[in-house]
Specification:
mainly alpha
Length: about 210
């Protein structure tokens, strides 16, 4: 099982890096603004897409490295600073994502799907940061897993979209459904993983907390 977990982690990291690097194209001068539905978004003209893509790609690119135990042990300052960058990137991208959700032309279902994702993603990330500040590192790790599972919606979205096209699905129906499917299963898998850890892990020492 450990081998399969490692393989799964490597595949996840490679997909995250690939999607992140492709998404950075929105930051290049003169880069295309995206597909027509994205261009029609009410907030694209105000730079919301560029902000969301740039910061979300940054979170996607560095987030998986936060779970590498050797990095945390050998270079704790690197872990802390990249963690701060990750949190800031998620919060900025979440705010821009919420604007894009409100301005979408894909209908109210897509607004709800992507809007709830933006809110839950931001809340989970903020909670992970708050727990790290309290030095409750056990719960901090659990909330970081939830946060990065939601960050990976950028990957699952890009897996569902071509799959829907290959299957010949009506994108007017498929896209609003994908606005939920790109993150709810991710979060469910994260919760199942966390539940499995609780069942198989020995009791851990109480976390350190800041005075007061």
């Amino acid at each position: 099982m450990a081998v399969f977990r490692r393989i799964g982690f490597v595949v996840m990291a490679l997909l995250a890096a690939a999607i992140a690097l492709v998404s950075f194209r929105y930051l290049a001068p003169g880069a295309p603004g995206g597909a027509p539905p994205i261009l029609a978004n009410a907030f694209t003209r105000y730079g919301a897409l560029t902000v969301h893509a740039g910061f979300a790609a940054t979170a996607l690119l560095i987030g998986w490295a936060q779970f590498l135990a050797p990095v945390r042990r050998r270079w704790p300052k690197v872990h802390r600073w990249t963690g701060r960058v990750y949190v800031a990137a998620c919060l900025v991208a979440g705010l821009a994502g919420l604007a894009l959700a409100v301005g979408t032309t894909a209908g109210p279902a897509a607004t709800v799907g992507f809007g709830v994702l933006a809110i839950v993603w931001s809340a989970a990330t903020a909670q992970a940061w708050r727990l790290a500040r309290r030095r409750d590192f056990v719960q901090h790790e659990r909330w970081m897993i939830r946060s990065y599972a939601l960050t990976l919606a950028a990957v699952t979205l890009r897996l569902y979209m071509p799959a829907a096209q290959v299957l010949g699905l009506d994108m007017a129906v498929a896209y609003p459904a994908i606005s939920f499917l790109c993150w709810i299963p991710n979060l469910a898998i994260a919760e199942l993983t966390l539940a499995g850890r609780l069942r198989t892990s020995p009791p851990r020492a109480a976390p350190l907390r800041s005075p007061g």
